[in-house]
Design a protein that fits this description.
Blueprint lengths: L1 E6 L2 E6 L17 H8 L49 E2 L2 H8 L16 E6 L5 H17 L3 E4 L7 E5 L8 E3 L6 E5 L14 H12 L14 E3 L48 E3 L15 H10 L6 H14 L2
Parallel strand pairs: 3-7, 4-5, 4-6, 6-8
Antiparallel strand pairs: 1-2, 7-8, 9-10
Length: 327
């Protein structure tokens, strides 16, 4: 049974059993959850306080037809990937795509970062309560570990994130940096028709990191010192997903991070489950491509990107949080 709701002239369809999360309490289900609630009060009543006037977000420019999780040759594609988007899960407009082709120094494009680190957001009511909780847990992680602040959209601010289960292209994907206006972060629920983006808060964190301006770790210009790309094992039409940025236009203050939540996994876009597309060097033996939590490096890079480490009053605080809470 389904029903239609109308708000501000917009009609949208929702399942009767998908009640707003503000009708339920958040479970205490991860480390320091209570502390997060006390300090930041990221409340479920803010899941969707306003209905946007228009729910027709800009379609990413770089999309082709695709299968969701498996290539015709039997090769595996990670469930978070949406083949056809840039590097699998990054939606770029043409300008940003051209910037990336020569690399990006975010200090040269400050307009692509969220002003003062404030990120208004709204979560679709189409998610089940447990799915909304997963998204809120990811948001609380940013609010606790960094000086970036996700705040419920007030219905007036021009630029905000709209976290929504987009029908096309399905999958887990985001624009990179602040795009402007109503900016989609697509997190597909486990409906059997595509990737499960909400199996853990880690996948939500990954896409929100993109929205904050963070690219994939293995796209760094210096990556060849640390990983080997096996082009012969990559599904041909996805080889461009392994492009890297240029040295002249990129700056990194931190070492290459194998543990990054932004790193590709060993078999991403592989022709076969037995053929890795990316392997580690430097004697590194840990599994790459984890989607559990921010690494220490992820945390430090994001704090550095938004100036959290340049302030002497907050530098030690965020260094300690990253080292203590990052994996």
């Amino acid at each position: 049974m389904r029903k239609e709701k109308q708000s501000q002239g917009l009609i949208f369809t929702a399942s009767v059993d998908r009640k707003m999360l503000h009708q339920r309490k958040l479970p205490v289900c991860f480390v320091l959850s209570i502390l997060f609630e006390v300090i930041f009060h990221v409340s479920a009543r803010h899941v969707m306080p306003y209905v946007p006037d228009v729910l027709h977000p800009p379609v990413p420019d770089h999309i082709e037809s695709f299968n969701l999780t498996q290539d015709a040759n039997g090769g595996e594609i990670d469930p978070e990937m949406t083949p056809g988007l840039f590097q699998g899960d990054m939606a770029l407009n043409n300008d940003l795509y051209n910037y990336w082709r020569v690399g990006i120094k975010w200090d040269a494009f400050p307009e692509k970062l969220w002003k003062n680190g404030i990120v208004p957001y709204m979560i679709s009511p189409l998610y089940e309560p447990t799915e909304q909780v997963t998204i809120l847990k990811a948001i609380k992680t940013f609010n606790f570990m960094t000086c970036v602040r996700f705040v419920p959209w007030d219905g007036k601010t021009k630029d905000y994130l709209l976290i929504w289960p987009i029908k096309y292209p399905k999958g887990c994907w985001s624009f990179v940096g602040r795009f402007g206006g109503s900016q989609i972060v697509s997190l597909q629920p486990p409906d059997g028709s595509g990737p499960n983006c909400l199996g853990s808060e880690g996948r939500a964190i990954h896409e929100l990191m993109h929205a904050l301006g963070v690219f994939h770790e293995q796209s760094r210009w210096d990556r060849d010192k640390f990983v080997k790309i096996h082009e012969e094992n990559i599904i041909p039409r996805y080889k461009s997903n392994f492009d890297k940025q240029s040295l002249d236009n990129t700056t990194y203050s931190f070492e290459y991070d194998y543990d990054s939540i932004m790193h590709y996994g060993k078999h991403f876009f592989s022709k076969s489950k037995s053929k890795p597309t990316i392997t580690t060097k430097m004697g590194h033996t840990k599994k790459i491509g984890q989607r559990k939590a921010m690494s220490k490096g992820d945390c430090l890079k994001l704090n550095d990107l938004y100036g959290c480490l340049s302030n002497s009053r907050t530098k030690r605080k965020y260094y300690n949080l990253c080292n203590f809470m990052g994996i």
